[in-house]
Specification:
Elements lengths: L2 H22 L12 H20 L4 H21 L8 H22 L8
Helix pairs in contact: 1-2, 2-3, 2-4, 3-4
Length: 119
């Protein structure tokens, strides 16, 4: 395994941990700067997840999307049932899944670009 691949995996792993910490913090205490700001946060966190894991694990798109969907479901269920100060939200989960799909799509397009030999 190459050092570059290890680095990409480490970055994706750190992003995933940060995502979990942000979404499973029992006392978020963050005020919303504009309506639906939490949806933007969900989208960005999961788009980063999809993009970084796609960059780290090329060729495993189905597994990355499936894991992202499971992670979205897990975080919303955990917020609903195990965190008294939080509530799960189906719309948050939808933004999570949309974020994963967009992140995977963008990373796939960027990393699979044909190499050109410019003069």
């Amino acid at each position: 395994m190459s050092p570059r691949r290890n680095l990409r995996r480490a970055l994706a792993g750190v992003w995933t941990i940060a995502l979990l910490v942000a979404l499973l913090d029992p006392h978020p205490g963050v005020s919303s700067p504009f309506p639906a700001a939490d949806k933007v946060v969900h989208f960005v966190l999961f788009a980063g997840y999809g993009a970084l894991w796609t960059w780290a694990e090329r060729g495993r798109v189905v597994a990355i999307v499936a894991a992202g969907v499971l992670l979205a479901g897990f975080t919303e269920l955990a917020q609903q049932y195990w965190m008294p100060m939080r509530t799960g939200d189906l719309l948050d989960a939808l933004f999570d899944v949309f974020g994963v799909a967009c992140g995977v799509f963008v990373a796939h397009r960027v990393t699979d670009r044909p190499k050109t030999n410019a003069p």
